[in-house]
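Continuing the batch. This is chain 6 of the set; chains 1 through 5 are on the previous pages. Same settings as before, nothing changed between runs. Recording input and output for traceability.
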Amino acid sequence: MTSQGLLDRRNEIFQPASEGWTFIQSSRIYANIESQPAEIELLDVETGKLIATAASLGSEGNTVRLAGKSYDVVGTEGKRVKLRAAGDATATPSYQARSLPYAFDVGIAVARRLGVPDNRIVAVITDDKMFVMTWIGMLNNAFLAEAARQDGLKCKPLPFGLCLPADQSSSVQAVLQKCVARLADSVLARQVPVERHADVGPYFQNFSDSVQKFARQDWLDHEFLKRWVDQISEVVFVPLTSDLAQDILAVIKP
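Output for chain 6:
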């Protein structure tokens, strides 16, 4: 600081120099916190809808993978990148971390690490609870849980699955199918507190109750849930003493 003219050294004592006093008396605010990074918008060229926002987009190739889906990059306009669903993507965007209570991508990665295929539901029963592993993320599980509660079932959404009463063990697949069928009426999604699980934007709290409900409804992807439940062909109950069950419980109760 002496070399910058902010301090004077006299008799082994440092005191503010003229530049130092100017700094001290200034009303300017200094900080080492970076400003909010600029983000680019990734838009569906067919519908104009926002798919996602990202901090940057890789320059390798003309395709990108978002939430497990491949898109072709068809054009850019400033901070907007237009995409079309297709292609075989190799690049992934770099995201700014905002709200991620375990998303779909993370769940699928964990399931693959544990050797669980797409068509199989694994479940663990401990005491009077049954943990049904869906791997489809907290938000989708929140929608399923709300549908289950509409049928009078106690159901709690988890990042990687659902917690149901153990006495429903004989009807797991039927329960999931019924939940997805109920969600065909998207009005049900209005009751799910989406804002607890996803970044709904800074203005959500300023909306009226009715507009907030419509905004929550927009987050339901019923077509995805329908494809997911239709591919399920088996439900396997994992013995509590097995390594897989212990891994599952570690994921549920970290």
